[in-house]
Amino acid sequence: MSKIKILLVGYGYWGPNLARNLNENSDVEFSGILEIDQDLHKKISEDYPEISIFSDIDEIGFDHDAAIVSTPATTHFSIGKKLLEKGLHVLIEKPLATTEDDCKKLIKISKEKQVKLMVGHTYLYNAAVKKIKEIIDSGEIGNLLTIHSERLNLGQIRQDINVMWNLAPHDFSIISYLVGSYPISIMASGNDFIKKGMHDIVYIHLGFENDVTGFVHNSWLHPLKSRKVIVVGSEGMIVFDDTQIENQITVYEKGVDWDKIIKSEKGKNSRFEIIDGEYYSPSIKSAEPLAVEIQAFVDWIKHDNHPISDSQNGLEIVKVLEKAQESLLG
Asked: pTM of the full predicted structure?
């Protein structure tokens, strides 16, 4: 198959990053940008003088093979639906849609049109997250107990969706991937200080099978930027700090010596034996996650190599978001 002709829909906050990766991918013919904001057309022309610019989705004909949607979350369903109905393969940045029902409708159309539908859970293509999964599955840190994930900063404050819908798709997709399943229980609480009804701080507890737990903290009202995932096992722990350029992962030989507790049958006033051993940072092959994600989309179209963030993955994460939202609102 020749190059895949891919249209980019949306050139706002995330669009330029997608455009750069599309332009640099040798398997892709960057076939145009659809942007309804006329004020952005000048910037697009400056950044990509040769690219075709469209202002209306109805202008999109059959000279594209696929599209990547990078628009506000509340528009994902309507735009994705129109593109799928035109027979295009579609990658929609997270979340896939804003309701479970809309996700199912998009999946139904993609199957009817026999085209691929993928969601942009970019962290699933992050080399650090993949390495953590390898370490967990190897048994190096023992039995998985709990995972804490936080995304905190002062802003970027959105008007269309709350902080959970903005940030938690990353956390939910990472935790579910590392656990190897989706949560069976969800509880959420939070605050809406800036705009009533639009939560800017959330705390979410996730329960999985085998008594594994997850905890997510998202905030637009925090003095420091934090992007951390902390994995706790029975024999070790892992910290992933995405704000670091080097040594993003640290693996610790930390925990509780369960064998000594059981064998010695310590009294209730005795101290438990704590393991506090060595630590190291594993080497990670560097690659831009967004580039890997786009290549996965291309490879699915060209070679039918099924990606991890397919439409079913998108649906499952939206189901988690909806349940958390219900808990948030009481």
From this structure: 0.94
